[in-house]
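User: We ran a pulldown and think these components assemble together. Before we commit to crystallization trials, I'd like a predicted model of the whole complex to look at. Sequences follow.
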Amino acid sequence: MEVLNNHVTIRKFKNKPVDPKLLESILYSGTRASTTGNMQVYSVLVTQEEDRKQKLAPLHFNQPVAVNAPVLLTFVADFNRFSQWCTMNKAKPGYANFISFFTAAIDALLVAQNVSVAAENNGLGICYLGTTTYNAKEIIDVLNLPKLTFPVTTVALGYPDEKPDLTDRLPLEAVVHHEKYSDYSEKNIREFYAYKESLTEMQQFVKENQKETLAQVFTDVRYKEEDNLFFSEKMLQVLRDQGFLND
Amino acid sequence: MEVLNNHVTIRKFKNKPVDPKLLESILYSGTRASTTGNMQVYSVLVTQEEDRKQKLAPLHFNQPVAVNAPVLLTFVADFNRFSQWCTMNKAKPGYANFISFFTAAIDALLVAQNVSVAAENNGLGICYLGTTTYNAKEIIDVLNLPKLTFPVTTVALGYPDEKPDLTDRLPLEAVVHHEKYSDYSEKNIREFYAYKESLTEMQQFVKENQKETLAQVFTDVRYKEEDNLFFSEKMLQVLRDQGFLND
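Assistant: Here's a predicted model for the assembly, 494 residues in total across the polymer chains.
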């Protein structure tokens, strides 16, 4: 399936708006994704206004893509709408809890991926912003999100102004397990990561960051334990504030 | 995009195996999905053996689809492999925390949706099993999943032996918000849910369950607060046991 197999992340977009009809059709394809009990417990926030993009950009650590993409789509786990419908229909909603958050997050993420595939199938390029959960609290404020909602990911969207090569992936056998998870031997790990480690680009990465190994670039620079602990606490607190965690 | 727009959930499969080459090609398309920092912090567990399917079926509440699909794919948030690679490369992994779990869950869910789209594009049918997070603990045992992994969803896969109609969706404007989340008025909610409530199938659903409203079927029968609270506690405990929640 070409559109899936040729996916590359786009970080540079043309200064060309996305036609509203096209955007609508892509979002429609998103809503055709599987959804738990057909409840559709998600919302999509479309950001196109310049000043709102300027407010979101720092929350995505000013990644250039957050600034220069014509459209930002924030995918939100949403039990607010469904709960309101319940209350209006003599039904007591019971979704102010963690499993409901996670159910809604799954819903939102399947929509996000469908939207991404539909976008690429229409000549657009996309970039996922993994920063959404880090600054969920501030994003909630900018987007006016009510209780029982939580932003789970953001997709930047627009016409590609670059044509990057496919990025490397681990061999399929590194991520697929038949029948039982077979834990990895040192030998497995060496083999599976050998190609990635051999890439000029990765070696450059190690050098630039003055590290000894590629793994250290991840643990010491890109995804540090202290940051992870900080953002874990923060995310759990926001889940609590949004009504999804009662302890 | 036809394959996205025509998606229907398949719950009845032909007694016809999925060719290993086809399965491999579908899984490959899965791995082309976006992944945080290209870390690929997920694994896919393929279940085809009859006795293991029999062990998984009750954990999916014996949904017929869990028994009669030739293939079950369990998508797992996985920081185990990556952490082992770090440790072997003089890097201290810092991923035993909640944000890392959620990052890995996003990764796993994007792969799941790509795999589903690729499967349907090849004439296969799929059904998501939302029960995976309810019984994650028991699924971990059956699939031998180590610490720093967590099963987030399951997709049942096979050749369709039914041709269901498209299911209803809320109007696009019910789930899409431009610039800011505009909270719903009673009038909005009435309008957005009117079509769903009008469907014969839904009215049948209300009658069968001896309820007054469709919403009550959800709150009193299908997704009850007491169950949600029980499974929330259970899921949080499993996250703790798997090393993703330290409090």
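The mean pLDDT of chain B is 97. That may be worth checking against your pulldown data before setting up trials.

User: Thanks, that helps.
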